[in-house]
Amino acid sequence: VVLVQMPRSAAARDEEFRLRLAADDDSALHEVYDLFSPVVYGLAARVTANTEAARDVTQEVFIDLWSRPLAFDPKRGSLRSWLAMLAHRRAVDWVRREVHRRRLPEAAPGFDRLPTVEDEVVAADVARCVRGVVEGLPPPLLDVIECTYYHGNTCRQAAVVLGIPEGTVKSRLRRALACIGDELQRKGLIS
Amino acid sequence: MDERLHREVKEALAAWVVDACPAEETSRIVAHAESCPACATEVDRLRIVTDQLAVAAQAPPPPDLRDAVLSAALRVRTPSVVPANAPLADAYADQIDRLDRVLASLTSAQWNAPVARHGSVRQMVAHLAGNDAMLAADVGLPTITGAQATAGQLHRQWRVQAQALARYTSSREALLRREVRLAGTRPARGPAHAALVQRGFETWIHADDIRTVTGGPAEPPRPHQLKLIADLGASLLPRALRAAGRSHRDRTARLILTGAASGEWSIPLDPETTPGPPAVTVRADMEDFCRLLANRHDPRTFPHQAEGDPALAADLLFVTATLGCD
Prior knowledge:
Chain A is mainly α. Chain A has helices at 8-22, 26-48, 51-67, 79-101, 125-135, 139-148, 155-162, 166-186. In chain A, helix 2 (26-48) runs antiparallel to helix 3 (51-67), helix 2 (26-48) crosses helix 4 and helix 3 (51-67) packs across helix 4. The chains are: A mainly alpha, B alpha+beta.
């Protein structure tokens, strides 16, 4: 079931990339890197807060795509979404290994209240607009998104950091994603 | 379905898509979401939101990272630079380039112009892309299901698919030997090598069909491609004669083709006959013969010389004209 139709050209482009990558066409990998490395790297840098780790994650994500292009299923979502998912998983794994390595108490990784928008050079309209939507969430919802998605905490860790029950973290996450989805839809960023 | 499990998973999906679930919970969620269409749909919907959260975090990567990533990737999986069969790869790639230029030059009226056998130029290109897709599927490449709403999209889709097919198939020795479906009016199978010769052959013929529509001169392929096509035709003839009910036991034809490229074949006129002394010798131009293979010549008026049994020559030429791809 495809709920949200990408523009036909983007969907067709993703299918073309998948075919070309499967056919050993490394120029396709160059193009995919140029299109999506800002999202992959930016997300990894944000979650790990470590440029070396962000480099490693970026490298692993693109090697993964090149090694197994057919693992990406264009019927389930866009290529960018697939790469972002791979990047997020790897970044979160890094954060959790790091916490473990330093023997920090589970709740130790704190989080900045707001993204450091000023530090980032990228001023893509869409990115700015989505940031606006996220930052416009009611603070309790923003907190759980920041603490989990952008900082790699589990719900349990987030519960400790935020001083709320784990069940509340989960329900706020649901509401936060629903709010963001509604708002992005209202702004026409997703259909 | 376990209703309680479904409710639990449904409530945990948001946490799961932001990777905030512990590992043991994750495996339970994945197992359920794979078999529950409602949860799978919800996951796809949530991923659209997390995709946007990722976009919000985008930042330019350090410039030196590009080379580091790309060279590391190529170390993991190195594409073969030299095709396993260079003449075959070149012949097909050459025809892809030529048809690409022809299609790029078409006006929308020309895209819709009528052509024999396929309705319009556009329908003919869709037919060609469909035959390419059949080979792509048989060699394990994904096919593009995407839009063909405009002539431009169809053109692009054909080209990307054909280029991928040429690159992938011709670079793998083992793949070239794999048995695949061949294009044609009758179901037939053969090695991927033969299918790739066919792809280049059909691409040439259809480019020529379009050149006829646009008033351009016919363009013969390079000599080595003509030779590949004639070889393929000669190898298919014994079985095709049998299938057409025109085979002749213990009879052999000698085929001598000259012109831009030349070659000689001893063709048993039945699949179970071993080649012997020729009962007939047929001489023709190789390019003409290739066009006959594509059924772009009438076998009854085909320019040739035959020495020996003229009935055998007629059967040979008649069946040759049935071996094309459309």
